Structure formats: C-alpha cells, structure tokens
Amino acid sequence: MVTLLTDATEMEVQDARVEGERLWLTGADLEAATGWSLRPEGLCRGDVCVPLPPGRELVRGERIDVAAVWRHLGKPIVHSDDGSAWALGEAASDRAAQLRSLEAPDFTLPDVAGRMHSLSDYRGKKVLLVSWASW
Amino acid sequence: MWQGLYEELKDRNFIVIAVALDSRPADPVQWIEAAKPTYPCLIDRDHRLAALYNMVNVPQAVWIDERGIVVRPTEPAGAYEGFRKMNRVTREMPADAARTTAEARVTYMNAIRDWVKKGAASEYAYQADHARDRVPVPTEDVARAHAAFRLGQYLMRNGQPEEGDRWLAEASRLHPDSWAIWRQRAGVNELGLAAQPDFWERVDALGDRKYYAAVDMKGMPQ
Q: What residues does each domain of chain A span?
C-alpha cells in the first residue's frame, strides 16, 4: 500500500507498485488522487492536455508511472526511503500563475474544535487572511 | 493581536481568518484559548497556507475583497524587523525599536480600517496590475521545499520521526528564507519561542539585507 500526499489530500492506494523512482498506478487511482487522467491526446485535467513524451515507457498495460508523469509536468515529487509515502507537489510556475490571477487560492482547514472552514465560505466579506504561530 | 480590530470592524462586512502554521497541536490551542478570539483561528500543520500564498514567516497577511480577489498580496502584517535590535539576553527591545514596532502596527491597522471603510477606493487597496506586480512568486526550489515539508510532516505524524526530520531539514535547505519551515523543526526556549542561538545566527546571517521586501504603504517604517 502507498500513501499519496497532494496539496489538499491524503489518499491510500492499495493497488500501487513501486520500483525505485517509479510509481505505477492504475489510471483510476491516478485520477482519484490528482484529477489527471490518461486520454488518447495525452494526460488531461479539465480542458488542459499535455502530450506524453515519446520514447519513454510511461504506460505499461493499464498502469502509468505517475512519478515520471509528474516530473514531465514540471512538478516536484518526493518519496520516503521505503517508497510507502509519496508527496506530489505543485509546480512553481503553476503557483505563480495562480497568484498572478489574483483569485485567492481556496483551502479548507480545521479550527481548534475540529470544525472545517474554507476561505470561500467567507465570500462576500473583506478578509484579512493572516498567518501566525505559537512560537 | 487582531481581536480588537475585528470587534471594531466586524459589522462592516469584515472578517479576520488567522491560520496557525504550527504542527505541535497543543501549542496553538493554548494560545487561542488564552486570547479568546471570536474570528476563525485555523490550524495548518502542513503549512498549506504558506505554499499557496508563498508566505515565509508570521505574521504575514493577504487582503481579499468580497469577490475573492486579492487586493494586497502577501506581505508582513504590520511587523517591523525590531528583532534585530533586541537584547538577546533580556529579550528587551530598545525604546526606539519598540516605538517603531508600535508605529508599524498602528500604520497597518489604520490602513485596514481605511480599506474596510472605502473598499476599492482606498489608497491601500491595489489596482489589479499593481497587485500582480507585488505578488511574491515561488522559485522551483521553494516548490520542492513545500513537497519535502509535506512528506516530512506526514512521516513525523506516522511514527517515522527521524526520516521526517530529515525531510524537514531538506525543506529548510531548499527554502532558507522560510523561517516558518525552519522554526517548525527548531528547538524552542523556556517561553516556547524559537529564539535559541541558531535563531540569532539566522538573524546575523542577514547582514545588512532586509528580511522582508519593503512594505508599500504610506507611513510604514522600513
């Protein structure tokens, strides 16, 4: 079993195969974890499709090497020594584009009582969004 | 820190959302309970906010209007780099630094009041082009640091503290300007503050360089 960590989610995948730097997932698991899916035109999410690079084995039967695909998309990916946990990060260029759009990126986080709050719950108000810490 | 301002402005369609970049769960809870804020105080153990808004320290803030549009991107929230002048033994601030720190805070609070009152017409709310120019954008290393931090925090929580710590160290190496990442792993002193000698080494390493980019706000001490 492998745990996939994305920006907002933590997902356990039963049917994953790890070979060193390669992470083979089924198309269904890839889509569930990341929203990206394999189509004839390449790797797609929403209206965006990225062709797969030729000459590299990224697809084997019904499985996709998600680590290679992620790197191909320019996104950072790191994994634990034993390959049981993988963090699929977001690319700097995607973050920059999001920030430059000026649309405040949404997130959902718990308060002390465990109640979840999304930034978008407060649409219609002016928001001072501020970081703090106990230290 | 924000409770008074929130109480004053909450009936004018204004809210404060405070996000603790803090994974030692007992720590923020203790502070929240002491301060009794009535605005949402959220716990962000994976520093997601820092990744999304490219924050490096606390307190940093973003102003978001009623449509969900950023009108002031990430910047220090009324903070002044007074820590440079602090007496490292007594932790006292010299009078001039304390005065400047207070001035930075008042200037920032007054700017918020102006924005809440005047909205887009406030001189403190940026036009879109100006806001876009002021957005701090992450580098590739910063993006990698956030992925490493995410993995490190997961391992820390799941019985692999040594390997987790290694990833947090890697995140800090990739993103040395993030004091938020570094402090998550730093030792804390008897007051629960990360102000051990290694903190002061970081301050000294800045030399003449400012830690924060200058805040573009009339009257803000730089």
A: 2-94
